[in-house]
Fold:
Amino acid sequence: MRIRSARRSDLPLLQDIERAAGEPFRDLGMAFVADDDPPPLALLESYRLAGRCWVASDPLSATGDRPIGYVLADPVDDALHIEQVSVDPAAARRGIGRELIAHLACLAAARGMAALTLTTFTDVPWNAPYYARIGFRVLAEGELTDGLRAIRAEEAQHGLDRWPRVCMRRELASAARPSGAAGTRRIPRVPNASGSSDTSEAVAVSGGT
Structure:
């Protein structure tokens, strides 16, 4: 598996991934989520230009470097917040989402950030229960930062609170992955408030389970 910064040509493919990843919600009676539009190209481009959009691909597959998953992230308070992580259902159960999140954890730790955070549905099996298995914990209301409260308020306005949602957090070690560990990662920078672009090259990671 390969994780790299997104290219402009990837962005329509990320929209396709998002549409496909939404379909399983329909089986849970959450057609509102399944029918939600993917992120607009202009928004994806803003993440790409800011260096906060990464894709996973499988160079050994027939599709080569075509994205099969992606992640968007924002610095929020003391953490790197996972705005979106989606994997093509055709590539499910290969550890792709886990590897994308591991990439963010390595990046954030290298920048001295304290944690990864995200918001997610409580009762969807591949949402909160999955994140709990990979080290996230649910935050109590009193633990929410101002940034997380703002994100939750925006989600509520969008109608997502018709199903239970939570904020989750995964604490990080203060150092990046040691050299010599399985796989190789080149750590891109998290842009500062000026929005300077991430100029990192491709990142190769070991395969997930």
User: Anything to note?
Assistant: The longest helix spans residues 96-110. The beta strands are 2-5, 53-57, 67-76, 79-87, 115-121, 137-138, 165-171, 203-204. The chain has six helices and eight strands.
